[in-house]
Each structure stands twice: as structure tokens, then as C-alpha cells.
Specification:
The structure holds two protein chains of two kinds. Chain A has helices at about 5-35, 40, 55-65, 70-100, 105-115, 120-135, 140-165, 170-175, 180-190, 195-210, 215-220, 225-230, 240-260, 265-270. By secondary structure, chain A is mainly α. The mean pLDDT of chain A is about 85. Chain B is α+β, with helices and mostly antiparallel strands. Chain B is about 25% helix and about 30% strand. Chain B contains nine helices and 19 strands. In chain B, the strands form four sheets. Chain B has a six-stranded mixed β-sheet with strand order 6-7-8-3-9-10, with helices on both faces. Chain B has a five-stranded antiparallel β-sheet with strand order 13-17-14-15-16, with no helix packed on it. Chain B has a four-stranded antiparallel β-sheet with strand order 2-1-4-5, with helices on one face. The two termini of chain B are about 40 Å apart. The model of chain B has no long low-confidence stretch (mean pLDDT about 95). Classes of the chains: A mainly alpha, B alpha+beta. The interface of A and B includes residues 169 and 192 of A.
Chain lengths: ~280, ~325
């Protein structure tokens, strides 16, 4: 930083940044706060911020009513499963596009991304019917497949930008050294790309964990992840804000903690290649 | 053994004819330098020999076998890259051993060979370091170590010294030459630096626009360039090219004379001129002279030259060392 900013301006920009950060975080904070309120206080006007009767009874009731760990286990299986499979396909694909590009590689990348622009609801009915006819409704395997395909374009894109940063000569050196394509991928490319692969994995786990449209529409109980667990508390018989908040808090807690510990990786992952 | 023969080797990138067809025979144990300006196809030619690019046509024969369709690993060649291309996540030891591991050699033999290569290259103390903890020269030595442990039929160098500073470049140049005489292996060396080519090569291959202009020993190219291009490319400072009456008298379109083949005098001589600029190197002085109708001429005076810019000077070419070229740029001999 060559030029020092005047003090006043620094204070304003810092306050502004904190303000925006707080605004973004506020819904999560409010959810967590609400989960400790009684149902009555949860929708009192004016809303109570911190001074209310703190209670954990919502968590007790939620735990009693539904089997949190079954939902959580499904979330873990779906998120990890779909991500690992996506990586298995995306690493070779990104390798090919980064190190052996053809005339249409750029078009291919754009086309892949364009599939993300279609509203998912457009594909709901055909996929629902396919799932029904193949007995995949409410199955983990079917949902892993959908989530894998859903996020594959993003995984390929992220890995592609990482691989682009790796000098091709190093891979060529491995080829001269007698490495087969497989060994080149495993012993040379993968170790160099570990930071990139790790942040791709993290981001994709988060995306798959939070994915609600397909998980809500294609599961009922056996394969239902935490999104269904949350949704089960927004019932038509009346809104139970506090219990819904408790369920939401429990659903996002694992991923929030994971994200907190991995934030450095994630920030690096999302801004990688932006500068240079 | 390591004889390499190129037979009508061609390479196209799309519609662009990068190498229209090259024939060349390299003997076992020879140090051959490919030299030419950037974009002349010298690196592409090396990569074709290595197998990192596929040929569009022709044969690449190594020890009697056409390897044009054989993957790089099975051609028995080692390559040293301009960027060194070390594996950044591996120690120096593992960098050097990687090729042997890929070949499935037993551990004792690998350790033995790595130790020997490290000793040859003064890397023994650095074997456990990662490449990022090494200097440029050390990195280059690791890259060379990686090449020599595999005992290849031939070594390929792709501008290996261009990332080093000038002093280190001279030192590494000597080390590579010593390595060549110690191993007696065939080496192909690509550079754009004609000084490297002149000092290192047994034979130089001058490339221009994907074609071989001339092949010969450094002194053959210096003394008897076949074309204007070679004449201008080999030698430093560059050969002076004169056209017009001077050339016509000698029955040529262009006459070339090297700066070091002009005798200089402050009093009399064949071509008068005026000094524009003097570059003092201590051992020599390069004078840039306005030769009037002859155009601008560079001349070399041994040691120091007494006159500076603005002074008159007379130049007398060594008539036995004039190079004559026809209108196509080909040398006229006899």
C-alpha cells in the first residue's frame, strides 16, 4: 500500500465493511437466536433481540419428534458421495481441457456452465418420472446421481482454473521420465493441485449439503437429508418459528463449523486465478 | 548408442506449416546445437524428437528404429526444460529418482544412481531440500541430474540457460560441456544465443522459418556461411552487408564483411568514414561508422581506439575474408 489512507476514511470503510458483513450474517444469527426463544416470543412485536427467556426446550422437542442423525447421515452421504464422484470425473476432464485443449474446449466449458442457467424446475417432471419408473425415488443412489450431475460443471470449472496455473512443462517432464498418463495424474498433477482440489471439494460439499430443490422433491424419508428435516417444521397447521429455527440451526451447524475452519482454503479457492 | 536421424520430418499446427520438412543425421556422441531466431521452429523440432509433439509426417529414427509414433517415455531420451520443470512437491532426491521409480528399478540401484548423479553435480548436500529452496543454478543442476540418472540414448536441452544470469550462464555452459565429454552421450541443445552455439557445439544447425539454413561446425559457419541469413546470424557483432557499387565490382548483389576483418586507420585506407559511436569493452572497441554511400558499418578495433565520435576513420577490408552473395541471398564461391 503506497498511499496511506486518511484515518477518517479508514474508519468509515471499516465500519461499512463490518456493516455489510453483519447484514449478510444477520439471518443466520437471527435463526440461532430464535431457536432459543419460546414460540410466543419468537414472533413477538417488537422483536426481542437478546433479552428474552433463553430456553433449549425447542431442541429437546425437535430431537424427540424427529431422528436428527438419520437426516444428518443422509446429508453427509449425499454431499460427500456426490462430490467424490464429481471429482473422479472432473479431474480427468479438467486435465484434458487445461493441458490438451482442442479448438472447441472454450465452447465446451461455456456449454457446461450454461446447463446451470436452466431453471431446475424445467427438468423436474422428466427426472421425477425417470426416477419413479426406475425405482430411484427416495433412494440415496438416485439423489447422489442428481447432485453429482448438478454440480459437475462447477467442479470442472474450478479444477480447470486451478490446473491452468500449473506449468505444462512439469507434466511433460513427467512424461519424459516415463510416467504413464495415470501416474502423471496421481504422482505429479494431483499433489501439485491439492490446494485446488481441496477447496473445490469443500465448496461442492457445501453446495450439495444446502441443495434443497431436488432433495425436497425426490425424497420423502429413507434418503431424506437435513433440508427435508427443516422443511418438516414449516408445516401448514401453523408456524412454529422457534422449532423451525432450532431445526435449521441443527441442520446448518455442521457445515457452518466446517466452513469456519476451512475459510482460508475457501477464500483462496474462490479468488484463485483472479489476480495475475 | 545414440544416433538420431530425421527424415523429412514435418509439423503443421492447423494450417500453419511450422516445419515443412527437415532432414538431419546426428552421430552418436555428438553435441549438436539448434540455433535460430525465436519462432524459427527449433524448439518445435526438439519437441518432435522428444515425442512431446506429434509429427505431421516423416520419420524420426533413433538407433535404427523409427520412433515417430512411440510415446516419449519409450524413446529413451531425457530432456532439460527452460523452466527446469522440477516437481515442486518432491525433494531433490525424489526429483532425480522419479524416472527410475517409473521404470520400476529396485531401491538400492535407485539410491546408488541418485548418489552418483548428485556427486557429479555437487548436489549431495541438497538432496532433502525442495526445489523452491534452491537457487536457479542448483535447480538447473537438479534438472540435469534428473536427465542423467536415466542413462538416456540422448539428451535434449531446450534453452536451459536462458533463465540464469549472465555469470551463471557461462559457468553452467562449461559444466554442460564437461558433462558432455564425461558422458560421451549424444546431446541436442536448443538456443537462440549464437555465442552458446559457437562455444558449445560440435555441429550447429541454423534454422530459419522451420527450414535448415546450414549445418556445420562453428568455424565452418563462421568462415563459409552458405546464406545471408547464416552470415548475419553467426558472429558478434553482426556481419556488415554492403550493396551497390562495392558489391557489383565483385560480381555480387551483396558483400559481407565481419567487423573484425576491417583494418582501421586514422590516416588512410580503402573506405573513408566518420565515427558515430564507440563502444569500449576494454579488450576491444566497437566503432559504429557512417560509411557514406556504404551505409552504416560496424568495425572492431583490438584494444583501445584513439579516436572518438565525430573523427574520420579509414577502413580496409581483408579481401580474402569478403563474403559474396547473389540476389537470392546465397553465397557465391570460387
Amino acid at each position: 500500500m503506497a498511499r496511506r489512507q486518511p484515518m477518517q476514511r479508514r474508519v468509515i470503510t471499516t465500519a461499512f465493511a463490518w456493516g455489510i458483513g453483519f447484514a449478510i450474517f444477520f439471518p443466520i444469527l437471527w435463526t440461532i437466536l430464535t431457536s432459543f426463544k419460546t414460540e410466543l416470543e419468537a414472533f413477538s412485536t417488537p422483536p426481542k433481540f437478546l433479552f428474552f427467556d433463553w430456553t433449549t426446550e425447542n431442541y429437546g422437542i425437535v430431537n424427540e419428534r424427529s431422528d436428527y442423525f438419520r437426516f444428518a447421515m443422509n446429508s453427509v452421504i449425499l454431499a460427500l458421495g456426490s462430490t467424490v464422484i464429481a471429482l473422479l470425473f472432473a479431474i480427468p476432464a479438467a486435465w484434458a481441457m487445461a493441458f490438451a485443449p482442442a479448438k472447441r474446449t472454450k465452447d465446451l466449458l461455456l456449454w457446461m456452465l450454461s446447463t446451470k442457467m436452466m431453471p431446475p424446475v424445467g427438468a423436474l417432471i422428466p427426472i421425477y418420472i425417470i426416477f419413479r419408473n426406475t425405482n430411484l425415488l427416495d433412494s440415496r443412489a438416485g439423489l447422489v446421481g442428481v447432485l453429482f450431475l448438478l454440480n459437475l460443471p462447477i467442479v470442472v470449472w474450478m479444477l480447470y482454473t486451478y490446473f491452468k496455473e500449473i506449468p505444462g512443462e512439469i507434466l511433460e517432464a513427467a512424461r519424459m521420465d516415463g510416467a504413464s498418463l495415470w501416474k502423471e495424474l496421481v504422482f505429479v498433477l494431483a499433489p501439485m493441485a491439492i490446494p485446488g482440489i481441496a477447496s473445490t471439494l469443500l465448496l461442492n460439499v457445501i453446495l450439495a449439503w444446502n441443495e434443497a430443490f431436488w432433495t425436497l422433491n425426490l425424497t420423502t424419508s429413507d434418503a431424506a437429508p437435513l433440508t427435508v428435516f427443516i422443511a418438516s417444521y414449516s408445516s401448514p397447521e401453523g408456524l412454529f418459528w422457534a422449532k423451525l429455527s432450532a431445526a435449521s440451526t441443527m441442520a446448518i451447524a455442521p457445515i457452518l463449523i466446517l466452513g469456519w475452519f476451512a475459510q482460508r482454503q475457501l477464500v483462496r479457492g474462490l479468488t484463485f486465478g483472479a489476480v495475475k | 548408442m545414440g544416433t538420431i536421424a530425421l527424415k523429412n520430418v514435418q509439423k503443421k499446427f492447423g494450417d500453419v506449416d511450422v516445419i515443412p520438412g527437415v532432414d538431419l543425421a546426428i552421430n552418436n556422441g555428438e553435441f549438436v546445437v539448434f540455433v535460430g531466431p525465436s519462432g524459427c521452429g527449433k524448439s518445435t523440432l526438439l519437441r518432435l524428437i522428444a515425442g512431446l509433439e506429434d509429427t505431421t509426417g516423416g520419420e524420426i529414427v533413433i538407433d535404427g528404429v523409427d520412433v515417430a509414433n512411440v510415446p516419449p517415455a519409450r524413446r529413451g531420451l531425457s530432456m532439460v526444460f527452460q523452466s527446469y520443470a522440477l516437481y515442486p512437491h518432491m525433494s531433490v532426491r525424489n526429483n532425480i529418482a522419479f524416472g527410475l521409480k517409473m521404470a520400476g528399478q529396485p531401491k538400492e540401484i535407485i539410491d546408488q544412481k541418485v548418489a552418483k548423479a548428485a556427486a557429479t553435480l555437487n548436489l549431495t548436500d541438497y538432496l532433502e531440500r525442495k526445489p523452491r529452496a534452491l537457487s536457479g543454478g542448483q535447480r538447473q543442476r537438479v534438472a540435469i541430474g534428473r536427465a542423467i540418472v536415466r542413462e538416456p540414448k540422448a539428451f535434449l536441452f531446450d534453452e536451459p540457460l536462458s533463465n540464469l544470469d549472465a555469470a551463471l550462464r557461462v559457468q553452467m555452459r562449461i559444466e554442460i560441456m564437461q558433462l558432455h565429454s564425461a558422458l560421451g552421450a549424444t546431446m541436442i541443445y536448443v538456443t537462440h544465443d549464437q555465442v552458446e552455439a559457437m562455444t558449445m557445439a560440435d555441429r550447429i544447425v541454423v534454422l530459419n522459418k522451420g527450414r535448415i539454413e546450414q549445418v556445420g561446425t562453428p568455424l565452418e559457419l563462421y568462415n563459409r556461411p552458405d546464406t545471408l541469413f547464416v552470415a548475419g546470424f553467426i558472429g558478434s557483432p553482426r556481419m556488415n552487408f554492403l550493396q551497390g557499387d562495392v558489391a557489383r565490382v565483385l560480381g555480387a548483389q551483396t558483400v559481407g564483411v565481419r567487423p573484425e576483418h576491417l583494418a582501421l586507420s586514422t590516416t588512410s585506407g580503402q573506405w573513408p568514414g566518420k565515427i558515430l559511436l564507440a563502444e569500449h569493452l576494454g579488450s576491444d572497441t566497437f566503432l559504429h561508422v557512417d560509411g557514406g554511400a556504404l551505409g552504416r558499418i560496424t568495425a572492431r578495433a583490438p584494444g583501445e581506439f584513439p579516436q572518438g565520435p565525430g573523427s574520420p576513420v579509414w577502413m580496409t577490408p581483408d579481401s580474402s575474408r569478403l563474403h559474396r552473395f547473389d540476389s537470392e541471398g546465397r553465397a557465391l564461391r570460387g
